Automatic annotation (TrEMBL):
Stated name of the protein: Transcriptional regulator WhiB
Family, as annotated: Belongs to the WhiB family.
GO terms, biological process: cell redox homeostasis; negative regulation of DNA-templated transcription
Ranges for domain 4Fe-4S Wbl-type: 35-92
Taxonomic source organism: Nocardioides piscis
Taxonomic lineage of the native organism: Bacteria, Bacillati, Actinomycetota, Actinomycetes, Propionibacteriales
Manner of cofactor binding, per the entry note: Binds 1 [4Fe-4S] cluster per subunit. Following nitrosylation of the [4Fe-4S] cluster binds 1 [4Fe-8(NO)] cluster per subunit.
Length: 109
């Protein structure tokens, strides 16, 4: 019997893994089921906040999403989108800030 990473019940109970485990799991899945292989991989490391949010959304349908996220947390990924979350300096952050200096005074809405 072959155990598939497509079985979401298996991916619910994940422990921290290294990058090799993720690579092995991804190798068992058809490439067209892995959003970061079927879309422009630059989205996962994009400068644009909207592109980053789009990559995070695409990860939600990935069959190895839970494994990808747990591994990235364990490795403390320095940057990029992993498992549907944005990492910066080893921690998950909510959103990517746009480039440039923040406004000195917020503009009234
Ligand atoms: S969860 Fe996202 S970054 Fe991880 S393998 Fe899937 S598509 Fe790629």
């Amino acid at each position: 019997m072959t155990i598939s990473v497509l079985d979401r019940n298996l991916t619910e109970d994940v422990s921290p893994r290294d990058l090799g485990d993720l690579h092995d799991a991804a190798a068992q899945v058809e490439d067209e089921l892995l959003p970061c292989r079927t879309n422009n991989a630059e989205l996962w490391f994009a400068e644009s906040p909207s592109d980053v949010e789009f990559a995070k959304t695409l990860c939600q349908d990935c069959p190895v999403q839970a494994l990808c996220l747990s591994g990235a947390l364990e490795r403390r990924e320095p940057w990029g989108v992993w498992g549907g979350e944005l990492f910066l300096q080893g921690a998950v952050i909510a959103r990517k800030r746009p480039r440039g200096r923040p406004r000195k005074n917020e503009v009234a809405a």
